């Protein structure tokens, strides 16, 4: 604790949780987390999103105190917590498999963190009841975890992580074991609990829709590095590199070479020779190879108005999905090009094998690193 | 119309109260039984060879053996006619002339035939169990009885030896010539009949079995506890290591099973004896003097050390298999909620290992309570267990009935302990992995 004071000057920022030049290696040969710098504000909901092995869970474990950082400092408030054991960090945590103690009833599970804090019995009972009511599980206090369904166990795990009123709550893929419908409902519930309590939440998941639904900001991890840290909207609308564009949402890719740079836009010659206009995001020089990223819902088929790009293509496949129709088109040598056509009920006459024109606005087409 | 109406009346009644029917109208239970019959037959056939093997090689011989603890025919085998006649005697004074005559004739007849297990000597041994000191009298009887060729037999016999005049001898003879007898259970529980036919404690020098039972239970409990103390940390380590390492270490745990039990036990002799490795090292470093070497073997210490070593894997394996299923996230969850490592262990980890502890202790305790070879080799006089006494009666003294009685008591003890265990721990909570 004394060391916390000495480093407080360096750690003093408005960030509540702060990773500073954090590195982690398990075997001394491979860095699973490379030079991580991340500030999380008080009350913020930050999601660490990435494929498995990207280092996101390791970061969470370092924050919780179950893995030591090989290098760098982690701060909570002003204090470096590198040398504070997990039980003194006061962080609530929800685990992937819930980790409800099977030999204790739900009530005992929830009062466990209060008991080890020597809270009085009457206060503890009130706190347990409050936490259970918050997740609408008040009637289950005498049950055993094994008697509950996955979704119910999830609520209990959430209540248990919050019952001792921590300021920071970590969640490690808490919804991973639930079915799709329940997962979506729990996402909203977690989001609302976060809004009501104002706790800081660090959430780890590999499910992008989960991240987009709940987070204030999302840190996209890959290969031990944060690829982009921004709001869900920015992440989807303005991906900063090819990995983020591919990882978040559906994405059409066209490869080509930069021919001309003109302020914030550039023109790109595709592999089949067609020239298109795109927004310059992650290319610097004329002649660079680039990967154009284009969301399927921003593609217009046989556009009426003026378009920044207009290409010829052939419809390969039509898939009816209710609210929209997925159209697979071969364009510029890419036969996996997808366009989503909203189902407006005007019975657009699209047929497989039909030749169409496709177009898009330059601002929707991002020129990224290849 | 009336017929149809009555049909309508009865049908819903059967549908509501009667058994559930299939769409063909066959009762569902019956149909299910037909469809599962094949499966049940298959299950039965798969177990038939083992069941037969167990019945022939285990249930029948053991049952027969245990039966001997209450059924002993030595008396009726040697003196069949006398055995019937003496049962009519009221036990007062001495039996009648007629009984004496049958006794003499039966003994002489048995001596003449000399059938295996039916000699007068056998009867002597049998009587001697209950009335120590009467072996020589009965063993030498045929030789002396030959002189008696005609009655009155009673007078002739009594004049041969003063000891024939003792009514206790005849009362004992009356007892041992009954086929069903509680005598061996009495002997196994350090009890006997006194001169007045009352059940009393046996003479002190013969009181060896009850104390040995207690010693066996006590030593087994100590061995079980030591196994638990040693196995718990090892099992914990094994369960937390990566699979490749834990598999390697598991081979080391199981390595003793690849060696003969005899070899392992004799290895302990080499290590523990007074000129053995441990004592030599202690003398060499100067902790003890050459003349005051520690007696580590041929006593209870030797039995405990060797048996803990031999039974340790039986504790490690169930513990390991249970610990393996406890995800590390439980401990992490407990610690994230503010529990110190010790509290997290005590409140969260340890309770979840209880099924393994229960299985391990039960397994080790029951194995220990009936263990034979190791205490026989390293136990000396002090460290022998009840199973060694049983073996002694079966192999050396050939008092099979007493051996069977001791064995039955041991079996019942184990079953009672198992029942208590089930009552307090619950067999359903056991996990052998």
What is the topology?
The complex is a heterodimer of chains A (370) and B (433).
Chain A: H1 2-6, H2 8-11, E1 17-25, E2 31-40, E3 45-49, H3 56-64, E4 71-76, E5 79-80, E6 91-94, H4 106-115, H5 121-134, H6 150-162, E7 168-172, H7 180-197, E8 200-205, H8 208-214, E9 217-222, E10 225-230, H9 232-237, H10 242-247, E11 252-262, E12 265-270, E13 275-280, E14 289-294, E15 300-301, E16 309-320, E17 324-331, E18 334-342, E19 355-360, E20 365-369
Parallel strand pairs in A: 3-8, 3-9, 6-7, 7-8, 13-20
Antiparallel strand pairs in A: 1-2, 1-4, 4-5, 9-10, 11-12, 11-14, 12-13, 14-20, 15-19, 16-17, 16-19, 17-18
Helix pairs in contact in A: 4-5, 4-6, 5-6
Chain B: H1 2-17, H2 28-67, H3 74-78, H4 80-86, H5 97-113, H6 120-130, H7 135-139, H8 141-145, H9 153-160, H10 167-176, H11 183-188, E1 191-193, E2 199-201, H12 209-240, H13 243-258, H14 261-272, H15 277-285, H16 300-324, H17 328-336, H18 341-369, H19 373-378, H20 386-395, H21 400-424
Antiparallel strand pairs in B: 1-2
Helix pairs in contact in B: 4-5, 5-9, 12-13, 12-16, 12-18, 14-16, 16-18, 17-18, 20-21
Question: What can you tell me about this protein's structure?
Answer:
The complex is a heterodimer of chains A (370) and B (433). With 370 residues, chain A is an alpha+beta fold. In chain A, 25% of the residues lie in helices and 35% in strands. Chain A folds into two domains: 2-237, Rossmann fold (3-Layer(aba) Sandwich); 250-369, Beta Barrel (OB fold (Dihydrolipoamide Acetyltransferase, E2P)). Chain A contains ten helices and 20 strands. In chain A, the strands form four sheets. In chain A, strands 6-7-8-3-9-10 form a six-stranded mixed β-sheet, sandwiched between helices. In chain A, a hairpin with a 2-residue loop joins strand 17 (324-331) and strand 18 (334-342). In chain A, helix 4 packs parallel to helix 6 and helix 5 packs across helix 6 (150-162). The model of chain A is unreliable at 1-13 (pLDDT under 50). Chain B is mainly alpha-helical and 433 residues long. Chain B has two domains: 74-178, no CATH class; 209-429, MetI-like (MetI-like fold), CATH 1.10.3720.10. In chain B, helix 16 (300-324) crosses helix 18 and helix 17 (328-336) runs antiparallel to helix 18 (341-369). The A-B interface holds A 64-66, 85-93, 95-97, 99, 101-103, 112-113, 116-117, 160-161, 164, 170 and B 327, 329-330, 332-341, 343-344, 347-348, 351-352, 354.
């Amino acid at each position: 604790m004394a060391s916390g004071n000495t480093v407080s000057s360096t750690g003093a920022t408005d960030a509540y949780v702060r990773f500073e030049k954090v590195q982690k290696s398990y075997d001394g040969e491979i860095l699973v987390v490379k030079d991580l710098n991340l500030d999380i504000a008080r009350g913020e909901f930050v999601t660490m999103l990435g494929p498995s092995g990207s280092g996101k869970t390791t970061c969470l474990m370092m924050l919780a105190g179950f893995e030591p950082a090989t290098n760098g400092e982690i701060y909570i408030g002003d204090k470096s917590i590198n040398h504070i054991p997990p039980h003194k960090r006061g962080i609530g945590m929800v685990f992937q498999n819930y980790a409800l103690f099977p030999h204790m009833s739900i009530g005992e599970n929830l009062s466990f963190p209060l008991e080890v804090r020597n809270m009085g019995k009457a206060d503890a009972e009130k706190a347990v009841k409050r936490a259970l009511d918050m997740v609408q599980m008040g009637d289950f206090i005498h049950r055993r975890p094994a008697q509950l369904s996955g979704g119910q166990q999830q609520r209990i795990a959430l209540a248990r992580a919050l019952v001792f009123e921590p300021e920071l709550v970590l969640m490690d893929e808490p919804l991973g074991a639930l079915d799709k419908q329940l997962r979506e409902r729990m996402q909203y519930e977690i989001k609302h609990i976060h809004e009501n309590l104002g706790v800081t939440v660090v959430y780890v998941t590999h499910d992008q829709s989960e991240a987009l639904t709940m987070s204030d900001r999302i840190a996209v991890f890959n290969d031990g590095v944060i690829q982009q840290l921004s709001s869900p909207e920015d992440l989807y609308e303005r991906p900063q590199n090819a990995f983020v564009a591919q990882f978040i949402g559906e994405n059409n890719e066209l490869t080509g070479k930069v021919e001309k740079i003109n302020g914030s836009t550039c023109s790109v010659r595709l592999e089949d020779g067609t020239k298109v206009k795109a927004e310059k995001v992650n290319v610097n020089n004329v002649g660079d190879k680039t990967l154009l990223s284009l969301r399927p819902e921003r593609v217009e088929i046989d556009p009426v108005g003026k378009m920044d790009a207009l290409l010829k293509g052939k419809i390969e496949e039509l898939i009816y999905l209710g609210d929209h129709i997925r159209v697979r088109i071969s364009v510029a040598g890419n036969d996996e090009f997808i366009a989503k056509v909203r189902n407006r009920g005007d019975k657009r006459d699209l047929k497989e094998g039909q030749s169409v024109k496709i177009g898009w606005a330059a601002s929707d087409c991002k020129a990224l690193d290849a | 119309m009336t017929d149809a109406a009555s049909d309508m009346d009865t049908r819903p009644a059967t549908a509501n109260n009667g058994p559930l029917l299939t769409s063909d109208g066959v009762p569902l239970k019956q149909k299910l039984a037909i469809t599962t019959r094949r499966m049940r037959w298959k299950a039965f056939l798969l177990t038939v060879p083992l069941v037969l093997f167990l019945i022939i090689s285990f249930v029948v011989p053991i049952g027969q053996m245990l039966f001997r603890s209450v059924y002993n025919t030595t008396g009726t085998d040697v003196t069949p006619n006398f055995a019937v006649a003496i049962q009519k005697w009221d036990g007062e004074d001495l039996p009648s002339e007629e009984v004496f005559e049958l006794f003499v004739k039966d003994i002489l007849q048995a001596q003449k035939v000399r059938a295996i297990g039916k000699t007068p000597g056998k009867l002597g041994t049998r009587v001697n169990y209950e009335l120590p000191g009467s072996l020589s009298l009965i063993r030498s009887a045929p030789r002396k009885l030959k002189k008696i060729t005609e009655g009155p037999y009673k007078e002739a016999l009594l004049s041969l030896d003063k000891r024939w005049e003792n009514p206790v001898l005849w009362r004992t003879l009356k007892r041992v010539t009954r086929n069903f007898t509680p005598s061996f259970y009495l002997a196994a529980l350090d009890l006997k009949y006194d001169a007045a036919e009352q059940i009393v404690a046996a003479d002190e020098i013969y009181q060896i079995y009850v104390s040995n039972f207690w010693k066996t239970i006590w030593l087994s409990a100590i061995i079980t506890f030591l196994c638990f103390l040693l196995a718990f940390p090892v099992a914990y380590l094994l369960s937390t290591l990566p699979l490749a390492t834990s598999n390697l270490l598991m081979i080391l745990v199981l390595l003793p099973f690849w060696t003969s039990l005899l070899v392992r036990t004799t290895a302990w002799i080499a290590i523990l004896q007074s000129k053995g490795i441990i004592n030599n090292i202690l003398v060499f470093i100067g902790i003890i003097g050459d003349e005051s070497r520690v007696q580590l073997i041929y006593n209870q210490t030797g039995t405990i050390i060797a048996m803990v070593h031999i039974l340790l894997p039986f504790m490690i394996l169930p513990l390991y298999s249970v610990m393996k299923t406890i995800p590390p996230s439980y401990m992490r969850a407990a610690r994230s909620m503010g529990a110190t490592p010790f509290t997290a262990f005590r409140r969260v980890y340890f309770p979840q290992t209880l099924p393994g502890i229960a299985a391990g202790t039960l397994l080790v305790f029951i194995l220990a309570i009936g263990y034979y070879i190791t205490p026989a080799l390293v136990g000396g006089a002090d460290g022998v267990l009840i199973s060694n006494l049983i073996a002694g009666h079966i192999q050396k003294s050939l008092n099979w009935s007493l051996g069977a009685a001791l064995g039955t008591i041991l079996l019942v003890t184990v079953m009672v302990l198992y029942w208590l265990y089930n009552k307090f721990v619950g067999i359903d909570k056991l996990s052998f992995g």
